[in-house]
Amino acid sequence: MALTHRHPDHASGAGRLSELSGVPVLAYNDGLGDGDEVAPGLVCVHTPGHAPDHLCFWHPESGTLLSGDLIAGSGSIMIAPPEGDLADYMASLERVRELSPARILPGHGPEVTEAVAKIEGYLAHRREREELVIAALEQGASTVGEVVALAYRDTPPEMHPYAALAARAHLAKLGRDLPA
Known about the structure:
Blueprint: H1 8-11, H2 14-21, E1 27-28, E2 31-32, E3 37-39, E4 42-46, E5 55-59, E6 64-68, H3 86-99, E7 103-106, H4 115-138, H5 144-151, H6 160-173
Parallel strand pairs: 1-2, 6-7
Antiparallel strand pairs: 3-4, 4-5, 5-6
């Protein structure tokens, strides 16, 4: 049993299933590494960012990427510092884009058939948001709340706690640490 990462929404039942089935639980740095074959033709791709231990599983023959929490079928992926690292996440997106997948089977949401376009959209969105965060800092934002108010104007107020986590990820990538 191969885990994409150890977050509870992806791994909470794995230990019990292992007990019941006798099948070992494998994860990054715990039986699996980058480039390992988890099954014939199914290759582990280390894709940190959402979590340091995040893996995708790549099936080159079919052009299919099982993306875990690297890419969702709809919406975006939360990168929450300190465990989440936006620089690593962006590098992981670039890495899987180079695989040129035909389809993505995400950990959340529907199958993605325009896979490369989806990856490029994720990269563009993060780059655009980073530009807005930089602009907020240049305008004098000195707290995460001020960054959210300026850089996440298009985000509904009820989503601001999540926007604050995303802003912290951008600030960490930029080497900035601001109070709440």
